[in-house]
Amino acid sequence: MWNTILFAVIPYLAVAIAVLGGIWRYRTDRFSYSSQSSQFLESRALFWGSVSWHYGILMILGAHVVALVLWNQWASLVSNPTRLYTLEVIGLALSLVAFLGLALLIARRLIVRRVAAVTTPMDLVLLIALATQVALGIWIALGYRWGSEWYVHTAVPWLHSLVKLNPKPEYMVSLPAIVKLHAVGGFLLIALF
Predict the structure, then answer these.
(1) Which of 66, 122, 142, 184 is most buried as measured by Cβ atoms within 10 A of its Cβ?
(2) Are 93 and 55 in contact (CB under 8 A)?
(3) How far is it, in rounded angstroms, from Cα 64 to Cα 59?
(4) Could you read off the pLDDT of 35-68 as tens digits, one per residue?
(5) Under 8 Å CB-to-CB from 132, ≥6 apart: which residues?
(6) Residues 6 or more apart in contact with residue 148 via CB below 8 angstroms
(7) What φ, ψ does residue 37 adopt, rounded to 5°?
């Protein structure tokens, strides 16, 4: 039952919340999609945190999406141990860069008084959720090696089943709890946005 809730109900519920909430926010308050700008309040930490965070996370998310969309090509790519090791090292390095950038952005929001004054509770909730998700990804990369390879055979078929409106949670059942938490956390982030 829990697997059905986690891997068949929560993903659809998260997407529904994101779509309906997005429409509602657009109609009621179009400017609520972003935290208040703090660029003029303190920009040095913003630059280093923002650049590290955005470059790191966009490349990590890009790899997740490429493996999802081009799964056969990705499986072929990571079938060679040298390419697999290279992708794993690059992915871990990028996730560490993203995490450090996000940590800098969170610290800036908490420490710089003028920035803290324009920080809403929802800003902090989202930043903590993002940091948790990236930390889980790093934990998986360090503790459950070769994720670039097994992702294609577990999470990708599960995500494809969701898109086809025929959820197959059995693909996720045998994965470690931390991987399951990372997968569900991704959909919770979708709902938060």
Answers:
(1) 184
(2) no
(3) 9
(4) 555 554 556 668 888 999 999 999 999 999 999 9
(5) 185
(6) 63, 67, 74, 78, 84, 87, 88, 91
(7) -60, 135
